[in-house]
Design goal:
It is a single chain. This protein has eight helices and four strands. It folds into two domains: 58 residues, no CATH class; 112 residues, Alpha-Beta Complex (H-NOX domain). By secondary structure, it is an alpha+beta fold. The chain starts with a helix and ends with a strand. Bound molecules: protoporphyrin IX containing FE.
Length: 180
Amino acid sequence: MKGIVFNLLEEVVSTAYGDAAWDQMLDAADLDGAYTSLGSYSDEEIFALVKVASQTLSLPEADVLRWFGRQAMPLLAKRYPAFFATHDDARGFLLTLNNIIHPEVRKLYPGARPPVFDFDTSRTDLLAIGYNSSRRLCALAEGFMHGVSDYYSQPLHVVQVQCMHQGADRCIFHVQPPLP
Ligand code: HEM
């Protein structure tokens, strides 16, 4: 996993709980925490940090990942405003994830291995988003989706209808505006 993801986690944790909390997490996970944005680090390190946060906060790991994703999106919007500015709504933005945003990320961060998304746009009231990654961080993806909904001030229901953790070949989310 690229260091930028660890940098975002550090910023989100430090903002919510203070710098000392991040240092304590690193100690508990037995990591030195010298993450540079372009560096590549073992996926096990992010899993270990999420595990420590989950134990410390008495929250399931999936909740930690969802929280992290949601809080990280405004930081990504600050760093990469161009990806957001070209859209008026969450649907338009999300639809560029696989053909613009993450391919661009691959150029900016050599060695990056972002997840693969697919989209079913056959319904106008509902966007079905498929997520596939050997890291199985679908909860992080869901948190990012909520962050995108916050960014565009557009309330969205996100329901996961299929999950790799339950043996599916990929995860599927249904994303739709709340019913009137
Ligand atoms: C400006 C927008 C975004 C940027 C710059 C960005 C960038 C990145 C980067 C650098 C990584 C690390 C890849 C690696 O280390 O191999 C990553 C991973 C990831 N991204 Fe994005 N991303 C953006 C938006 C999103 C959105 C909107 C979603 C979901 C809806 C998303 C879902 C994920 C997930 C779940 C991962 C974790 C890796 C995995 O699951 O295998 N990203 N992204």
